[in-house]
Structure of DNA-directed RNA polymerase subunit:
Amino acid sequence: MASWQWQARDFLFCGVCGTLLTFDSVRSASCPLCGFKRKAKEIEGKETRYIVTAEDIRRELKIDPFEEVLVQRPVITKSCPECNHSKAEYYSRQMRSADEGETTFYECTECRHKFTD
Ligand SMILES: [Zn+2]
Ligand SMILES: [Zn+2]
């Protein structure tokens, strides 16, 4: 079945940080980035019993969860006061004091300068 082949391939990636595991020997593989280790035996037999989630592994290894949040911000036409580039990403943030309301921030797509209106 195609589904377990996909999972087996998925198993070659670090469950913690998603980096491709390096085989130290025929018996084990480890993550070059965070040192997470996995036995080759587990990889072979995994089609029947791999249901461990990244969350479980983090808990087991006591690693703080770090999520890479890739949010695509909308880009609008706005000229940058720093470099005069005409496009900026924008996002709004609730200010700490309620009466300030929401402030819209712009970030130049060219020089990453952040500015407000
Ligand atoms: Zn890793
Ligand atoms: Zn700029």
